[in-house]
User: What shape does this take?
Amino acid sequence: MTRKYLKLAGALATVASMPSLAFAHTGIGETSGFVHGFSHPVSGIDHILAMIMVGVFAYQLGGRALWLVPATFVLVMALGGTLGVMGVPLPFVEVGIALSVVVLGAVVALNVRAPVAAAMGIVGLFAIFHGHAHGAEMPESAGGFAYAAGFMIATAFLHAAGIAIGFAIGKASENGGRLITQSVGGVAAVAGFGLLTGLI
Assistant: This one.
């Protein structure tokens, strides 16, 4: 089982890094777009917490959810990013992002054993808000494809980090691992309330 998770994490990291290697030899505009896109999800605590909770949630569900849940988030987020770039309005984006931290943190804290399809639906709903925010804040000088590749790869890395965190906690403490993981979710949910109310 340990090898299975390690292979999955390695595969995710390899696939996610391949486009970045390709962009290393492109023009300045594309490289700049990629860097801006990559830095956007990792520059805000709201995005970081939500992405990591998606990964931990996927780990808790296990099986096919390990890749279906994160993949759903990334793909739907790309759709939301397209809407943001096109200037299509989406109401309550910031509220939706803050709620994603609350809900995903609570799901992890309560160890919700949702069906895979339901889990995909939950993360897909919130992915639209995160993607729209990324797309709407794309610099005018950035290339759209490079920028999108950047924020999608950064998001995939954060999901992989969440899976790794869940796995590491579980293996570090076989008996208390679930309690620690759920506590991490609880902290994220509380932080989400802080974001929602403007205290953070």
About this structure: DSSP finds eight helices and no strands in the chain. Confidence is low (pLDDT under 50) at residues 8-29.
